[in-house]
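Appendix B: complex inputs.
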Amino acid sequence: MFNFNYYTPTKVVFGKETEKQVGRLIKEFGGSRVLIHYGGKSAVRSGLINQVKEALDNEQIPHVELGGVVPNPHLGKVREGIALAKAAGVDFILAVGGGSVIDSAKAIAYALADPERDVWELFQHTRKAKGCLPVASVLTIAAAGSEMSNSCVITNEETGEKRSYNDDIARPKFAIMNPELTMTLPDYQTQAGATDIMMHTMERYFTQGGNMELTDELAEGLLRTVMKYAEILHADPANYEARAEVMWASSLAHNGLTGCGNNGGDFASHMLEHEMGGMFDVTHGAGLAAVWPSWARYVYREDLPRFVRYAVKVMGVNPAGKTEEDVALEGIHKMEEFYHRIGMPVNMRELGIAPTDEQIREMAESCVRASADGHIGSAKVLYLEDMIAIYKMAR
Amino acid sequence: MFNFNYYTPTKVVFGKETEKQVGRLIKEFGGSRVLIHYGGKSAVRSGLINQVKEALDNEQIPHVELGGVVPNPHLGKVREGIALAKAAGVDFILAVGGGSVIDSAKAIAYALADPERDVWELFQHTRKAKGCLPVASVLTIAAAGSEMSNSCVITNEETGEKRSYNDDIARPKFAIMNPELTMTLPDYQTQAGATDIMMHTMERYFTQGGNMELTDELAEGLLRTVMKYAEILHADPANYEARAEVMWASSLAHNGLTGCGNNGGDFASHMLEHEMGGMFDVTHGAGLAAVWPSWARYVYREDLPRFVRYAVKVMGVNPAGKTEEDVALEGIHKMEEFYHRIGMPVNMRELGIAPTDEQIREMAESCVRASADGHIGSAKVLYLEDMIAIYKMAR
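Resulting structure:
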């Protein structure tokens, strides 16, 4: 077990009609001039943006707005937000959307706290953030966990680089989570979200050493819960209870809770997927499903007891009379069966992309550049040739 | 499922030698003049108080100190702390100890933020707190969960009333948790702590309705973990991993995590025990063990599916071929067997107290007065005669 810090200051306000509290909450956390940041037109069409503006008007909180954030959010939109927020004298950023919108909001908030320097430097890891304006969200997609996390992932659309920067000062002040707001999501987005949620915890689960039984128990319970309710939502997308279970899991899967005591997590699947997202603009969760089985088969022998435990406790494999290796492989296979049941891919072909050998090398080389020391992962430490091998297995 | 708020702003710094960070953390959270509050002489003898003072000196943070907080902490000591802190111009209260010391610190912090009014009014529920000075802790006992919770329990030693006041503004700024600091605890205190930890989650688990599968999974995982490591500590008190599992569980069991989505919890066992603590000054966790089995047998029929689930998922009862009632009762019986294995009582006789009928009525009447509307509990709503019946069953 390793020493750890756990810091989740975000106030969660969860349940039906909670978006009505947004004005009061912004006041509680000191916001006096707000940038409302959002994604596509669905947030406008559904009336949510208008409701949020009314709630702010009711508290006499001035606001400006900027929509158009896309999945794998662009640095260009971040720069647009910075300019608008500066001009308007904004002191609080409210994201209305999912992880992409929240991450875009965090990037704007970093920039406004240090307006003389280029925010992309943070994502290049050439400096650390000096500060961050307060950020909060009205969540409309359960997936990224950005509503409580310290992480922020931005794509530089000019270079195709998708890069992350993590800092506790960007943890949101509050998160309004009304599961009803996620009900109109297409099933593919819902299931990609569930996949992402599970992966945030799986990345922390498959590590070499440092594990804590309490953390493992919480992680396994969370994973079982997401699997159960993702399948329910595949058949019954308007099921409130199922929406709520998955939504709350999205926050707990990535706020640090399921990683306490371990060595910081593996996160190789995320790093490998980020390159796929940067090059092909695939849906993040679906990209994770497409790469994880190949990653798992490439690394499982290095961390066999955990893959066995995962198979038995999460995937329900009966270990009686089987070798550890067979149990671990059956667990990976059952995970693929689960992905198929919820309409997720298990390889790149099913994801709809077909990278050439050159593109695979390009992604792997970019992944090496994005890593701190030229390698990724902890369940098994992966170097350039390992990444290429996994991409090829996943093709 | 009910709407819920979840707010756990406390920064947890967990692991070996983390107490060395106390000065830096106080600075981070704006403390400039500190009251160091602690309990008995063991914190002084062990050298911990000196280490804390050195850490503050190294950061040039002036401090005063007040020891002598007893279990079931006294209002008189709170008043002493208020006077000392006022005179010294303290702006930050650091508790070095367990739940009693942290609760005493919270009460002092409430008073200093509103110095004209009597702090006991909060515990009489005749007004709400206007503010609270920042509080933090160096934890030395895993039990109460006060290091992350919004709760505070004080005993008015003149009237024998043990009363609680809960408010998010008292949630501590940080908690330093080094499991090594708990290693010298007597086994009885360790196990009473484990019992209290479990009960904080059980109080949230046995409720009528509003449960969330994710919350239940987390609760069950936490309970299994505490049981496992409490037994290990009974045999091997210096086991670091076991100390760490139980310590981290103490915070998660009572910070709100294991109650999300339910109706606020039952807490009847806590209310019944508070009266025993107020009248007989028993160890809180041991008092809970002495009353819970009787409470459970009195109420289980009202909430049978949950008692069955608890028996199967937490106590490991095999339900095959048994009625639901038998499964539920076997679960309660197995809980008693667990209490005995870790040296805890399962009734008042084993706890070492023998209240008369008059004393039982007095405790029940005081419990009614302490309740909001003359009744307690939610798994089954309990009135005066129910409380008397449970106390008599537990005698």
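The longest helix of chain B spans residues 213-235.
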